[in-house]
Amino acid sequence: MPLEFLKRRKKQDEPAPAAMPQPEEIVPEEFEVRIHYRAKSTEGVRMQDGQAALRELPQMLAGIAKADVDVLYPLPVELSEASPSIVQPSEAMQWLTAHQGDSPIARHALLVLETLGAVDLAFDTLAVSLLHGETDTSGYPEYNAIVGGVASHWDEATGDMLVRAVVGWGGRGVRGDTDRTAQKILSNLLTNVLASQFAIGMMPSERPVPAAGAGGLVCASCGFVSGHERAFYCPKCGMRLLRG
After folding, report:
1. Kind and range of the H or E element at 131?
2. Are 184 and 165 in contact (CB under 8 A)?
3. H-helix or E-strand containing 234?
4. Cα distance between residue 200 and residue 187, in whole Å
5. Of 244, 242, 237, 239, nearest to 55 (Cα)?
6. d(Cα 231, Cα 218) in Å, to the nearest integer?
């Protein structure tokens, strides 16, 4: 005797699926990230003995730095296009290669300061540390923490070293009192710079503009290959570059 209930039901006997009801209003799930960076810098202070003053840069953060001081030197010509911009992958990879050995605080400081153009490692030497606030569990400064220190470069006209104080902060969030705190720290940093035994006086800090092109001469003193093809002085040690 055939068991009718075990037979496959014919397709024409299957009921049509009910239409899904259309919602009267679509409520989207929204996503948003606001990244806010800020930086401040002083005018330059001319130094009498650039070589000795260069070694003294970390000491200019004494009493202000809340962590170890990192000293970051100008990048060689093969990394001259390094940039923390994620929309330019080749430049971002150079930036990661150049700074993979730096501390989280130094990388965060460079991200903020280079993004805003407050420093440029084509010619700047930067002594940097955490100056205010806390770090997260991975060692990176919080959004309201202040990073920075002193940046130096060699005046293309005279070969003297110019030092300026620079601070930066930001990320996901904004706090109004951070600006006031940063201004106080900037003033304290400038006081330390002016207190240096090598300081001569204040002057406007007009930084050189790296030239486009094949770039750079080799410094006979330290062997650094400059990425600035019109440079007269080595960005790293300040010695005059020998030309052809």
Report:
1. strand 125-132
2. no
3. none
4. 18
5. 237
6. 11
Domains in the chain, CATH or no CATH each: 35-203 (3.30.530)
3-state secondary structure of 187: helix
Residue recorded with tokens 């410094």: 219
What's the pLDDT tens digit per position in 218-244? Answer: 888 888 877 566 677 888 888 887 765
pLDDT at 75 > cutoff 90: no
Here the tokens at position 175 are: 């706090």
Rounded to whole angstroms, the Cα distance separating 233 from 101 reads: 27
User: Sign (positive/negative) of CA torsion 137, 143, 145, 147?
Assistant: positive
Distance separating alpha carbons of residues 49 and 161, to the nearest angstrom: 8
Q: How far is CA 81 from the centre of its chain?
A: 14
| Cα–Cα nearest to 77, from 54, 94, 101, 89 | 94
The kind and range of the H/E element at 155 are none
| Residues contacting 237, CB < 8 A, separation 6+ | 51, 54, 219, 221, 222, 224
Q: What is the pLDDT of residue 11?
A: 55
Predicted confidence band at 132 (pLDDT cuts at 50, 70, 90)? very high
Is residue 135 helix, strand or coil?
strand
Cα separation, 235 vs 231, in Å, equals 8
pLDDT at position 32: 83
CA distance 149 to 25: 53
